[in-house]
Amino acid sequence: MKFTLGWLKEHLDTQASLDEIVLALTRIGLEVEGVENPGEKLAAFTVAKVLTAERHPQADKLQVLSVDAGQGPMQVVCGAPNARAGMLGVFGAPGAYVPGSGITLKVAEIRGVQSNGMMCSVRELELGDEHDGIIELPEDAPVGTSYPAYAGLDDPVIDVAVTPNRQDCMGVRGIARDLAAAGLGTLRPLAEVYRMPADPVPQVGSGPNVATHDPEGCPAFFGQEVRGVANGTAPPWMKRSLTAIGQKPISALVDITNFVMLDLGRPLHVYDKAKLKGGLVARKAKAGEQVLALNGKTYTLDEGMTVIADDAQVHDIGGIMGGEDSGVSEATTDVVIECAYFDPGHIARTGQALNLTSDARQRFERGVDPAFLDEGLAIATWLVVEHCGGTASGVTRSGEPPVAMPKIAYDPARAAALGGLDVPADRQRAILESLGFSVSADWTVTPPSWRRDIDGPADLVEEVIRIEGIDKVPSTPLPRAEGVAVPTATPAQKLERKVRRAAAARGLSEAVTWSFISEAEAAAFGGGAWTLANPISEDMKVMRPSLLPGLLSAARRNIARGSQSVRLFEVGRRYLADDERATLSFVLAGDKVPRGWAGGKAKAFDAFDAKAEALALLAEAGAPVENLQVMGEAGATWHPGQSGTLRLGPKTVLATFGAVHPATLKAFDLDGETVVAGELYLDAIPAKRASGFMRAHYTPPALQAVRRDFAFLVPADLTADALVRAAKGADKAAIVEARLFDLFERDGEKSMAVEIVLQPGDKSFTEAELKAIADKVVAAASKLDATLRG
Amino acid sequence: MTTDLDQLKTDLLAAIDAAAGLDALEAVRVHALGKSGAVTGLLKTLGGMSPEERQVEGPRIHALREAVTVAIADRKAGLEAAALDARLADEQLDMTLPVDVAPRGSVHPVSQVMDELAEIFADMGFAVATGPEIEDDWHNFTALNIPETHPARAMHDTFYLADEHERPMVLRTHTSPVQIRTMMSQKPPIRIIAPGRTYRSDSDATHTPMFHQVEGLVIDKGITLAHLKWTLETFLKAYFERDDVVLRLRPSYFPFTEPSAEVDVGYSMVKGKRVIGGSEGWMEVLGSGMVHPKVIAACGLDPAEWQGFAFGCGIDRLAMLKYGMDDLRAFFDGDLRWLRHYGFSALDVPTLSGGVGA
């Protein structure tokens, strides 16, 4: 919401400076987003009179002027065709910066004649596009005075952000009222502001034929006719105000409606009566009905929308935008002025459905003052009669605006109890009354009709606090529990923190990638359960079923930037049909070890690196990694022979890992790259049992452990895990560890070597005992068709 | 005899001294001290001497043996040291050669700042709460007193999920629905923060369609705007680890709080960059207010009994203000160079004793 300081002062009688006003606005909740003074850059230009104009001796198109800018005659060379003796214009002396042409004036010789400044055009002063000649001022313009001061340009423009609850501040008067309440001056009576005569505008004849047939969408439709108008240009003060805030003056009638809307927050519409067929009715639109709006676009309406129509067609999308067909023009002589109340909810729904915003919608959507229809219409009619002439009709009033306001039982103690600021009751009463609230002796408070946003005591506390000064609210510590702070993190939060830092400690960098991916990327991971109805782009359409698509894309970008080795992880959610699940995913791509003087060639990541990461992170997460089973069925995303799942029991999958399937890589433009990855399902990891801090009793064994090696010839399809488990399980009391330490295949024979560790208890193993255990190991292996190598 | 012994000693010491290696030295030792060595032979003559003679010759022969034994040991040590030196000289490596460096991982700034927030607020008695990111419109809007026609509900602001659902489903536009879920699932007093991902249909230089917010909520008896002010001041001072953090509250409007305030934090210009602290200028960092009675009632609590405050703040922005990143989009790109530069060591765990910042 923009307005000028001068405009504000029409309503607010104040001695306050611009700075004081700006600070006060922000302090009371009308945040100032900018202040600009268009006159500042023109401060060096003055009103001047051309005393004489002679032809330049050396140039046909130039004249030599003698100009008085208040300090006696000065010689100026000028090329404007309209420059002539006796005219008044705008003069820039040497040293002045001309904003429109970007130059600083200096004394110059032009074709041998000295020129001491410049008479300026509209464009040169950035006041418009006109550049056919120099500015011509009226004869009574005071020579020698500052031009921006004379032209009313020296008026700072203030831009405030009005929050959606403050419909009253969508007009300059509402802002003035708030400032007055905040002690910045007094509010002038409206009649004084509009210089209205004591006697109302005479009304001749009955009011126009207007009515509302849609009491929900348009509860009230007031109208007045003015006959015999001349739609010329608006008065200079009005055009200046509109221009200053970036509104282009159009015609007197249009400018008057715009001005009243901006000044009083009261949107109006003016119809050219000659273009109407019969009376005007506010009614629900018929489905498919169309209207050509003033913005030149045709809108197709539906039954929920309220329109203003005559007997033939729709002329107005009620409260949002007028129609082209009944708009006023220079030829207009008779007008109908509409002053209606549209329901905010209807306006919002219609505006959203049509995707159409307007100044009127902004105001009706927040809710205009329902008690201001008569006065608003009277002001509009007065302005029309004053500036366009004509005779006013009577006023037609159809429907009832919803003027009833709630009565709020208020306890002044709430200011301290909720707002934290102790404001004396008398002061609270004064604040509320200055804002237009009525406060009864027993503290029943009725908000003014222009404050639809107020409906409870908390709202009144806000009014009191913001006017008294929110900066006065003290800082009071929250009550603090005794002792040091109690831990608050949940097991799930601690788990996430732990695996995140474990992954970072293992050399992986944490990324945060988008929660939404493209349909194709989701399809490569089995498809997503959730699709956006209104994605911002096709790349961000489906909620990710896995964190890997985002990481694979990030890996591709890093490789494209020349990264030789990519180690990325992310901790976040997968969005499944039934739930959002906490997940840690990682991607390893490129070189595991770079080429080096000691190690030779670079070494690429392989599926075992993914397994190692998965196991290490699961161990940090507290998963019982010793008991995990490595199984297949990782899924179609993965290399079928180089991937697996880590399970606790046959069903609970804690992690998937492996080499990514070449087809998946192709889908992510990673063809030819070695990429391995893993995904940990954090919510599947069993929570640590809460058993206090005490650990199980333990004393390191006194006797040294014994190691024994076994080399087996095994069937080609025997897995290492099966053999190791068999060896380990051969004597559960004595064997504490079993590990595969050698593997080779030659001439169709596969050989695996296993080391077992035996831990003696109270006394050392005897040779006989060791032999017996070894026999058990061999027997267990033989069940798998593994035979001891000779 | 005297002369012979002296000569023998001189000869033997010279031979020891001249021994070029351990083998030569051993030969000298055998020659002198071996079974049939010269000194051994002399020692054997002691038995055949008269006591008087022995008294004279004994000490001299023993002295000779001692001198030769010591000289051999010294020479041996010297030769061994020289041999070791020679070997080590052979084993010299170029110690400027590069070594294998373990890959360096990093924690994302958003995670780090979330951990910082958890640490600071834990000290003030706040737990960390979470909620779904795919929300129904009741939790995201209606319960928060956001009317059906509020512009925030429009498709150009809010992501809606396709297909039919029991209620329209949205990607939560703020972390505020966690307020609702918390108030509905636990009894006051409540003190929580709720950090997490949030979404709005917005994409330009300073907005991304996904971003991170942290919500704060206190519900208790007798909680006022003054407690809110203290909490935010205390939080921001702890977060930026500066005592000169100045806050400015501005009355504002949010449907779910009443009264509402936007919070600006003061900054100073240092070398052309905005640094939090002082009050040369103001930057908006937070939205806050007293929880609206309608919101409390919507959660099944009696607003006459319970009241409190809520606030919301952008985590990405908090990270940028503290650590100096200037491009929000880079947060979500996964560029390893950026992650290494702006990320944190795994061991930079925020603690109150060590300072939450790193």
Structure description:
The complex is a heterodimer of chains A (790) and B (358). Chain A contains 20 helices and 42 strands. By secondary structure, chain A is α+β, with helices and mostly antiparallel strands. Chain A has six domains: 2-37 and 156-188, Phenylalanyl-tRNA Synthetase, Chain B, domain 1 (2-Layer Sandwich); 40-150, Nucleic acid-binding proteins (OB fold (Dihydrolipoamide Acetyltransferase, E2P), Beta Barrel); 210-399, Phenylalanyl-trna Synthetase, Chain B, domain 3 (Phenylalanyl-tRNA Synthetase, Chain B, domain 3); 408-471, Phenylalanyl-tRNA Synthetase, Chain B, domain 1 (2-Layer Sandwich); 491-684, BirA Bifunctional Protein, domain 2 (2-Layer Sandwich); 706-788, Alpha-Beta Plaits, CATH 3.30.70.380. In chain A, strands 29, 32, 33, 34, 35, 36, 37 and 38 form an eight-stranded mixed sheet that branches. A five-stranded antiparallel sheet of chain A has the order 6-5-4-7-12. In chain A, strands 15-18-21-22-23 form a five-stranded mixed sheet. The model of chain A has no long low-confidence stretch (mean pLDDT 93). The longest helix of chain A has 16 residues, at 373-388. Chain B is an alpha+beta fold. Chain B folds into two domains: 2-90; 109-337, BirA Bifunctional Protein, domain 2 (2-Layer Sandwich), CATH 3.30.930. Helices cover 40% and strands 21% of the residues of chain B. In chain B, the strands form two sheets. In chain B, strands 1, 4, 5, 6, 7, 8, 9 and 10 form an eight-stranded mixed sheet that branches. The longest helix of chain B is centred in the N-terminal third of the chain and has 40 residues, at 51-90. Chain B starts with a helix and ends in a 16-residue tail after the last helix. The interface between A and B is large, with 95 and 89 residues. Chain B: Tetramer of two alpha and two beta subunits. Chain B: One of its GO terms (molecular function) is phenylalanine-tRNA ligase activity. Chain B: Its EC number is 6.1.1.20. Chain B: InterPro entries: aa-tRNA-synth_II, aa-tRNA-synth_II/BPL/LPL, Phe-tRNA-synth_IIc_asu, Phe-tRNA_ligase_II_N, Phe_tRNA_ligase_alpha1_bac, Phenylalanyl-tRNA_Synthase, tRNA-bd_arm.
